[in-house]
Amino acid sequence: MKRRTFLTGAFTGTAALALGVSLYTPEVNDNPDDTHRLLFSVLIPIFMDGALPEVANYRDAFLNRTIIAINQTISVLPEDQKQELTQLLTMLESRFGLLILTSSITPLVLRSPEQLNEMLEHWRHHFLEMMQTAYIGLRELIISSYYACPEHWGRLHYAKPTFLDA
Amino acid sequence: MAANIIDPITTGLAAGWQHIDANQLTENQHFEADVVIVGTGAGGGTAAEILAQAGLSVIMVEGGPLKSSSDFNMEERTAYPDLYQQAAAMKTSDKGIGIFQGRSVGGSTTVNWTTSIRTPDNALAFWEKEKSVTGLSTESLQPWFEKMEARLNISEWQFQPNLNNAALKEGCEKLGWEYTVIKRNVKGCWNTGYCGMGCPVNAKQSMLVTTIPSALEQGATLISNAKVIDLKHKGDKVEGLSAKAQSGSSSAATLTFSAKHYILSAGAIHTPTILMRAKTPDPHKLLGKTFLHPTLLSGSLFDKQIDGHSGAPQSIYSDEFVWRDGAAGEMGYKLEVPPIHPILIASKTIGYGRSHAELMTHFNNLQVMIALVRDGYSDQSPGGQVRLTDKGFALDYPLEQPFWDTARRAFATMAELQFAAGAKKVLPINDGIGMQLNWAQAKETIATMDIGLLKTIVASAHVMGGCAMGDDKTLSMINSEGQSHYFENLSVMDGSMFPTSLGANPQLSIYGIVARNATLLAERLTAKT
């Protein structure tokens, strides 16, 4: 059923131009929702290669922050986009789904960075728009969530004005 | 929030303004007024003030929340879910165009970039000739534009443009192209560059801090978080509206409304959606014909800091290529720049991993140009179509070959402009294309690059049309005064009234035309009473 829905176009990759909504509020959770945690801990280093710090401790902190932001991004998306995205993520976590999307049942966590890059490039330049939207959906979700966090702006030399804090 | 910045909304509420947050209602409630206005953006806000001033009782019903300067923390992660439709993630059904549209009290005026341009002569002339619009000429609208420009303090930006805008100006000067200093609706602007996240110092003269407070002062009622879900009608009369609180809980209250007159100002997607869902007459299948100014982006790197996040986001535009071949001729495009903030730029550029990280490292040296394509003027650019779905709506907007041909020309124009302004590298935001090192290289690359759906980033911040005006019923849903052709007590006053796109940023066109139409309506309604 999932495959059918996916292939008939219900999935369109989310637009997830977004935000980690309330990271500065008391809702901040240092034990982030583990939904899709393993999947994102594999994908974030690929999408954010070159932006994530090399030092292990910092890298882990950035990774955790981004996973929190991603879950918060997903939580504020409209219901249909949320469902589309969840469908994609669920497929990437199942062997059957992986087989459809990547022609291999090897879990993503067991694939090398080169193989993961190859997978994303395959989707990115695929002749099926559906596969391109899978790439775009993941890309926008992860990159937007990463740069939603002020902690990640150091390399940009960007900071919001401080007059509100006066 | 800094202690010295007064939030006019919290102050007004404390002083007794009538505001109801529908999410706080514990039971269903019925409301009555002379006029119920659905939506509080440029159209709804303008109409509310005029009708309240005329002595009519007014209720404003807004689907989004009431947020004000105390909530505006200058962060995209807060602004997008709070202030934009679908958390700024709205896209056309094929995901080809990302759409930014406001959703809080004040609508898109709360988050727009303050650019205020009168309706172009070309658009008005085209509407008169081809779309049966009457009474809306440059001359007849002049007093209405003057009125709203005075009301919203719209005037030419007197400060130096920031370097992002200055590049547009300098490029045009070098190439001998037209450019114009933008008029902005601001009063006491701090020149910070965060208009798109809600003005934190209440300098932007949005509906949130001008007409809506004015209407509330005169006794109007504002209901936020109430999304209109039904419009009851019989014969040529609208009999009532129903709205649902947006809390998402099963106990969310239903609100019902009765009025002598109803105004839809819910924006160019939601106004037609309300009418479609209510199965109102549409014999010529005109509802939901939508125009977007589909917009291309071109990045460039300078060897100096541009700091495109700082300063008035838009202060210069160029109309060199908008109307070159006449209104009905080849699609044209307007040149502007966007503000440069992390999520906006990170998501609207291309690629990932090291190449993307490298681009973001140059964030402060990045200059970005945008080309807004004028749509709706010929068969080449028929626009899109809003349709209902089980869960809400979808917007189909197929981007066809004439658009892609125009996009290719626009990419070339932007690259030429950026190099002329001193850019060291130019990056057309089109997948598979790297940094271009000079104009000759860019020209060749752009001429042959693989361009198309999902490969090319296309965005829109201007949703127009969907309930077009005109006197010919085969071309329009409302007359040129905003009155429905099918219901004697229904008007439409928002961006959905435009029969085509404008070829200009829409807010001042909405202010001016709605000021005229709401004044005429107030005269009719008060004459009756």
What does this structure look like?
- The complex is a heterodimer of chains A (166) and B (529).
- Chain A is an all-alpha fold and 166 residues long.
- Chain A is 55% helix and 0% strand.
- In chain A, helix 3 packs across helix 7, helix 4 packs across helix 5 and helix 6 packs across helix 7.
- Chain B is an alpha+beta fold.
- Chain B folds into 2 domains: 268 residues, FAD/NAD(P)-binding domain, CATH 3.50.50; 160 residues, Cholesterol Oxidase, domain 2 (2-Layer Sandwich), CATH 3.30.410.
- Chain B is 28% helix and 21% strand.
- In chain B, strands 1, 2, 3, 10, 11, 12, 13 and 24 form an 8-stranded mixed sheet that branches. A 6-stranded antiparallel sheet of chain B has the order 8-16-17-18-15-21, with helices on one face. A 4-stranded antiparallel sheet of chain B has the order 20-19-14-23.
- In chain B, strand 4 and strand 5 form a beta hairpin.
- Chain B is globular, with a radius of gyration of 22 Å.
- The N and C termini of chain B lie far apart (46 Å).
- The mean pLDDT of chain B is 97.
- Chains A and B meet through helix 3, helix 4, helix 6 and helix 7 of A and helix 3, strand 4, helix 9 and helix 10 of B.
- Chain A: This is TAT leader-containing periplasmic protein.
- Chain A: It comes from Shewanella electrodiphila.
- Chain B: It comes from Shewanella electrodiphila.
Name the helicity range of chain B.
25-40%
List low-confidence stretches of chain A.
Answer: 1-32
Q: Into which percentage range does the β-strand content of chain A fall?
A: under 5%
CATH homologous superfamily identity of the largest domain in chain B: FAD/NAD(P)-binding domain
Q: Can you tell me the CATH architecture of the largest domain in chain B?
A: 3-Layer(bba) Sandwich
Portion in helices of chain A: 55-70%
Mean pLDDT score of chain B: 97
**Major sheet size, sense and barrel closure of chain B:** 8 strands, mixed
Instruction: Name the shape of chain B in a single word.
Output: globular
Shape of chain A: globular
CATH topology of the largest domain in chain B: FAD/NAD(P)-binding domain
- Ends distance of chain A: 56 Å
Structural class per helix/strand content of chain B? Answer: alpha+beta
Task: Give the CATH class of the largest domain in chain B.
Answer: Alpha Beta
How many distinct beta strands of chain A? Answer: 0
Number of discrete helical segments of chain A:
7
Instruction: Count up the domains of chain A.
Output: 1
Number of helices of chain B: 13
Strand content of chain B: 15-25%
Biggest beta-sheet profile of chain A: none
Structural class of chain A: mainly alpha
